[in-house]
Task: inverse folding
């Protein structure tokens, strides 16, 4: 009797449906197990962050595609204690190129290795990163991996963007480069000396800085060389003007930092007119509190769309531009000149003509804004286009934080047509709260509280009714 009942049980609908359910469940589990093994093996990940924080740009991939030398990236920290976000980005480099290797070294247990890469400027510490190729290396301190900004009201400094890719890709380009572009720093006119930070930044960007005095030295610039004029307080001579006009007429490249001077500089002004611009001898004051920092002369200008500026806009890095002057485009200029404003003040700004005045109030004779305070100029007439960037103040290059140093370095690279050096942008770390309207709130609540439970209840009742008749 019992044997018949057992055989009957195996032939019942309940056993049949139960067997099907067990088989399907087992198949699903096997599929999930195999899928997990495959995904784990392939290490598939998708960056869902707003600014692709953990992804590399196309430019970084292009740099790695062209690598002909082996690269070592060394992170000085105990493996397992590294910043996971930073490691997530750096791991993309060896994953992309077989010529790049990544290793971790604990500086406390390997002091001799750390000492090898240390110098008076860059001492190896926990969190430092070294990128090397052969005997050439670049040290990146942990603090350089972040860009900071200062609150205009409280003065507090906060992290604004992540510069890991920018620094690592830049270091790779530095260590594999065989030649450096030469920057001739004009001397003999009481120019402002470059700070250590600026000099170091130029070196990191593969620029070699040399001084040139056109009155005492014979200048024979090679193709690709550029000129830097850093805030002269004495005018250039007619002979120097002739030499500089000749340099730029042959497609020369240059950067001009021009500060407010109490004396006239007619020959320098003539050179500027050759570029289709005139620098107004007046001090700009900003009338819009949102466009200055603490004092109306410390401008926070609008950043216009341009290859030089776009990386700072993407990273939400403001520019602080102290004591600027208006840059006016001449009504009569060469048709081949293309003048592109980089930084512009608000329409509430004005230019104080009396540069000796101590008042910040607008006076009779002052001129109304808005004003351009930095412009990029290209002369497309020449076979090798002449390119210059003119800033109506030099003070911005000595301001720490924000996008000031990036602005200067990007200008150097743009002038030299080194697009690879300016297209890797820092990743903005600022977060935006999710804005939900009252109607959206009610809709989501109804979905969670009413609709989903109702679907589950209906499905449960349907299954129960069906099973009653098995």
Result:
């Amino acid at each position: 009797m019992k044997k018949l009942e057992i055989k009957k049980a195996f032939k019942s609908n309940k056993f049949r449906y139960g067997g099907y359910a067990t088989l399907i469940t087992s198949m699903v589990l096997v599929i999930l197990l195999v899928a997990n093994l495959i995904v784990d093996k392939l290490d598939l990940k998708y960056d869902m962050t707003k600014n692709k924080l953990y992804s590399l740009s196309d430019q970084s991939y292009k740099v790695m595609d062209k690598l002909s030398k082996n690269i070592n990236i060394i992170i000085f920290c105990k493996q397992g204690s590294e910043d996971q976000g930073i490691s997530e980005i750096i791991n993309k480099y060896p994953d992309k190129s077989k010529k790049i290797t990544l290793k971790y070294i604990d500086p406390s247990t390997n002091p001799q290795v750390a000492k090898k890469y240390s110098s008076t400027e860059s001492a190896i510490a926990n969190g430092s990163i070294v990128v090397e190729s052969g005997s050439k290396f670049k040290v990146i301190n942990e603090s350089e991996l972040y860009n900071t900004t200062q609150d205009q009201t409280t003065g507090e400094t906060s992290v604004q963007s992540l510069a890991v890719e920018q620094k690592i890709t830049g270091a790779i380009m530095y260590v594999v480069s065989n030649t450096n572009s030469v920057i001739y720093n004009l001397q003999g006119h009481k120019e402002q000396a470059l700070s250590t930070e600026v000099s170091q930044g130029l070196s990191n960007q593969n620029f070699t800085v040399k001084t040139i005095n056109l009155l005492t030295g014979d200048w024979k610039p090679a193709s690709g060389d550029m000129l830097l004029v850093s805030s002269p307080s004495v005018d250039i001579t007619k002979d120097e003007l002739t030499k500089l006009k000749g340099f730029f007429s042959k497609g020369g490249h240059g950067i001009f930092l021009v500060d407010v001077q109490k004396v006239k500089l007619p020959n320098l002004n003539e050179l500027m007119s050759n570029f289709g611009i005139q620098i107004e001898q007046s001090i700009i004051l900003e009338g819009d509190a949102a466009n200055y920092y603490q004092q109306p002369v410390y401008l926070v200008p609008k950043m216009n769309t341009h290859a030089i500026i776009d990386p700072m806009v993407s990273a939400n890095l403001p520019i602080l531009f102290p004591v600027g002057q208006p840059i006016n485009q001449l009504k009569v200029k060469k048709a081949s000149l293309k003048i592109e404003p980089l930084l512009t003040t608000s329409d509430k700004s004005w230019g104080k003509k009396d540069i000796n005045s101590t008042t910040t109030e607008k006076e009779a004779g002052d001129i109304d804004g808005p004003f351009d305070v930095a412009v990029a100029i290209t002369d497309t007439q020449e076979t090798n286009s002449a390119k210059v960037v003119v800033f109506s103040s030099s003070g911005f290059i000595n301001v720490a934080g924000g996008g000031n140093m990036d602005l200067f370095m990007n200008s150097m690279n743009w002038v030299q047509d080194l697009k690879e050096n300016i297209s890797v942008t820092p990743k903005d770390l600022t977060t935006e709260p999710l804005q939900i309207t009252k109607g959206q709130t009610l809709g989501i609540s109804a979905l969670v509280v009413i609709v989903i439970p109702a679907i589950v209840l209906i499905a449960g009742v349907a299954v129960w009714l069906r099973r009653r008749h098995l």
